[in-house]
Design a protein that fits this description.
- This protein is 30% helix and 31% strand.
- The protein has six helices and six strands, in the order αβββαββααβαα.
- The relative contact order is 0.20.
- It has a single domain, classed as Pnp Oxidase, Chain A.
- The protein is an alpha+beta fold.
- InterPro entries: Split_barrel_FMN-bd, TR_PAI2-type.
- Pfam families: FMN_bind_2.
Length: 214
């Protein structure tokens, strides 16, 4: 991902926070010449056994994901291969009317993280169940209502043979935080103020990130 200097993450915590807050990743891997690349949307969490409280530079962290074993992507996913995970954070259109200057051009403010890592397929049924349970705990804690999975563990065990779980050891990560940094301060303030007043959740979330810029 090409990231101009002024759109780089202010520090590594921005990248980690974006992943935790937007865990539905697009996993991309090279396919054969006939099939082309594979791309699958799937939930990703930090491995609670090794990287639960990870907050520094991302290389070295381990992430967990899973997909349907019927997906051809699973058959093509090999231990030792490289996987690209892309995460998208708050984003929104910026109309030149907000700038209050002429000439001007519209643009799109957006936030994204690209993570590369080495894959380890998890073939053990018990470890696969562990990935599913860890994913439930992470997402119920962050986005849910504290659902107790105890009475559904038997159901989990029945469907687990159809689940392809994997671990990714991160080797590199890039963050793009395009938040009007190229604009003069007074214009950037007008964009942030406009977004903050909007009824659109994406605009308000973008304004929140803009307010954190150094």
């Amino acid at each position: 991902m090409f990231v101009p200097r002024f759109y780089r993450a202010p520090d590594s915590s921005w990248i980690v926070d974006l992943i935790r807050g937007n865990p539905l990743a697009l996993a991309v891997a090279n396919g054969s010449a006939e099939d082309g690349p594979f791309a699958t949307h799937l939930p990703v969490i930090f491995d609670p056994e090794t990287s639960a409280d990870w907050s520094g530079e991302l290389p070295g962290a381990t992430l967990l994901g899973h997909m349907n074993r019927a997906n051809p992507h699973w058959a093509a996913l090999e231990t030792g291969s490289v996987l690209l995970l892309t995460f998208t954070g708050p984003h929104t259109y910026v109309s030149p009317t907000v700038y209050e200057v002429t000439p001007a051009a519209p643009t799109w403010n957006f936030t994204a993280v690209h993570v590369r890592g080495v894959v380890e397929r998890i073939d053990s049924l018990e470890q696969t169940l562990g990935v599913v349970q860890s994913t439930v705990r992470a997402f119920e804690g962050a986005f849910g209502n504290g659902w107790d999975m105890t009475e559904s563990l038997g159901y989990f065990r029945r469907i687990a043979p159809d689940v392809g779980a994997f671990r990714v050891t991160v080797t590199g990560a890039e963050g793009m935080f395009k938040l009007s940094q190229e604009q003069p301060g007074e214009v950037r303030d007008r964009v942030q103020e406009s977004f903050g007043r909007s009824a659109c959740t994406y605009k308000r979330e973008t304004a929140g990130l803009m307010s954190r810029l150094p």
